[in-house]
Please model this.
Amino acid sequence: QVQLVESGGGLVQAGGSLRLSCAASGRTFSSYVMGWFRQAPGKEREFVAAISWSGLSIRYAGSVKGRFTISRDNAKNTMYLQMNSLKPEDTAVYYCGVSKYASVVVTTTRPSDFGSWGQGTQVTVSS
Model:
C-alpha cells in the first residue's frame, strides 16, 4: 500500500519562499511520475508540477513556471517543491500524488490520472 506524507507548508508573506516535501513509502516508484497539485477553498484540485522517475521529464503549470522548482531524491523516496516569489493566489492545500500508470515521461497533468494522495499541507501567503 502506497503512503505519501506532505510537509513543509506554513504561513509566509508575499515574495517569500517555502520548500515542500513528499515522503513516499510502501512500494517502489520506479517508472512512475510524481506530481504536486493544489486545491484552494471552493475550487477544484489543480496541477502544479510533475516529474518523472529520472527527473529528466518535468512539467509546470503556467502560473508557477519560473517561480517553483520540482525535484526528487529517489534514494530517499522523497519529492520536493521549492516555491519562491510566492503570491497570495498560491494559497491552497498542496497535495502530492503518484501517477496511476507507469511512464518514463510526464504525459498527463490531470488530477484523475494520479492517486495515493497524501493528507496535504497548507500554504498560506499573506499580502
Remarks:
- The CA atoms of residues 21 and 41 lie 22 Å apart.
- The mean pLDDT is 95.
